[in-house]
Amino acid sequence: MLELPEDLAYVRITRVLGRALLEHLQAEKQDIDDVETLVGELCSNVLRHAQSNASRFQVTLEYHSDFVTVTVKYQGAGFSLADVPPAGTARADFGGGERLGGFRRR
């Protein structure tokens, strides 16, 4: 488990540490890439959207023989499921284009 300051600078560090751990455990390359992306997205979302009053958040990676569990804990305002748009709904990107989730739509 890592406990980190709520600062976007720590997202990259978290991704790199997760990658190094999974490489050491000889996980499949695609799985390593996927987990690295997932960790980055989860941490970025916490820092951008959580509206936290705390100064820290926690990231835990648990490696099992056939899967990895990623847990991110924080103290934030949360959200109502009623306010979440349906899956696959496009939204405006900062650059004026459309995107789905954290990835640009191509």
What do these coordinates show?
This protein is an alpha+beta fold and 106 residues long. The chain has one domain (2-78): Heat Shock Protein 90 (2-Layer Sandwich), CATH 3.30.565.10. It contains 2 helices and 6 strands, in the order βααβββββ. The chain has helices at residues 9-24, 29-49; strands at residues 2-5, 56-63, 68-73, 91-92, 98-100, 103-104. The strands form 2 sheets. It has a 3-stranded antiparallel β-sheet, with helices on one face. Strand 4 and strand 5 form a beta hairpin. The longest helix has 21 residues, at 29-49. The termini are far apart.
Structure characteristics:
three-stranded antiparallel sheet, alpha+beta, 2 helices, 6 strands, about 110 residues
Question: According to CATH, what is the topology?
Answer: Heat Shock Protein 90
Number of helices, where a helix is a run of at least 4 consecutive DSSP H or I residues:
2
Q: Total strand count, please?
A: 6
Label the overall shape: globular
Radius of gyration: 15 Å
Question: Which H/E pattern describes the elements?
Answer: EHHEEEEE
State the domain count: 1
The major β-sheet equals: 3 strands, antiparallel
* Residue share in β-strands: 15-25%
**Lateral strand order in the biggest sheet:** 1-2-3
Q: Which structural class best describes the helix and strand composition? A: alpha+beta
Name of the CATH architecture: 2-Layer Sandwich
Helix content: 25-40%
- pLDDT below 50 for ≥5 consecutive residues: which ranges? none
Q: CATH superfamily assignment?
A: Histidine kinase-like ATPase, C-terminal domain
